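yo, Mycofactocin system glycosyltransferase is done. seq:
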Amino acid sequence: MSTDRLPTGFAVRLDARVRIADRGLSLVAPFGTVVQLTHHESSMIEDEVLEVVDHASAALARRLLDLGVAHPRPSRGPSRAELTVVIPVHEDTDGLDRLLAELTGVAVIVVDDGSCVPIERAGVTVIRHQQPFGAAAARNTGLRAATTPFVAFLDPGVEPGSLWAEALLAHFADPDVGLVVPRLSPLRSRRRWIQRYDAMRPSLEPGRRECGLHPESAPFGVPACALVVRRKALIAAGGFDGAFPAMNGTDVCLRLVTAGWRVRFDPVAVVRSEAPGSFLQWVTSRAVAGSATARLATTFSCSGRLPVWSRLWPAILGVLVLLGVRSTVFGSLVLALAGGARLAKKVPAVESPWQTAATMGALEFRGAFWRVSALLLRHAWPLSVAAALLSKRARTALVAVAVAEGVCDWFSRKDTDDRIDLPRYILLRRIDDAAFGFGALQGYLEVRSQRGR
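structure:
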């Protein structure tokens, strides 16, 4: 990791959800973070923007970035001349040609991973594996062959949007950023249910807001088919690991963060890719993603548990849901009051600390709903179904949660261009959860059995 400070002229802007309180001396974020500022630090922020001019402002900007209450707005970044695009390909020459047609003004290395007919293309560097070793090995070959400070990995068939390289490269003005992830969106030709559902809810989606990615936010999905890295950072981390073919990108992100590098997600930079062509392919891909996520989570977790089980209270609240509405309301109120009291003590210097705590508590309660829903409907759905078969009360509660979560998720994605209707969305959402959860359980058991040997 670099130890250089943020460069002069680098700017950060407060997250749109952050509230400035206490005459500018407190920054209150809805995700439970409160930042106390000195008068001097407060004076550095003008119109919600902080520009780096010296060591003090650089230190504050770094602090705000790491806490997630601000996002980078660099004045400039590396140019395309400092970027090499690596394309791993096995047989997919049509997808390769479409991608090459989109790439201009940038060096390109094509790694032919043992295609039956050797690939040759003018104007690019082609490196051939005599036999297929997999996408991870092909990416590593391209990484070693590149000589520029930054390397973009794009798979055949993806379509980078306009100014994708400039948007992603700008983040590397921060010397501690090791990898940047674009937003992955399905190609525009969407006729089937699956393609339209995937357009609303992309399978690999770190989020819908710009953010820094870290193990505490796992499981998040990072597509290896489109990302930009700082070459020296990835080489030091050991490159791509073939043990996680379905989650190559997420694995690399976690290892870079563990090594001290920052990883950013920028939804402004859009790269389009093909969605699964059939229902069976889609279900299989979700199960494979679940298995890979579980393997990654248990590998990087000190406790060896899935992230959803790392906190006890979502599991307790999930049990209360299956016991009945009254129990759930009682348990939720107890948790909300306890959380509110904790937050009020945490923000004593803020104007109206109890009001601030109540607002943050309500948002935390909303987050708890999503976590409990994920537990009941995705990660532990076999136990939920078993309880529903044995108890009418549990069955009623499970159906209510399944429908409510689907409705809330559907309405939260109202800004999507091509939407699927609500009933079909809920149906596919539940199938998505079941397939992913089945794969996650399978992957978790495999890792546990391997550790037990």
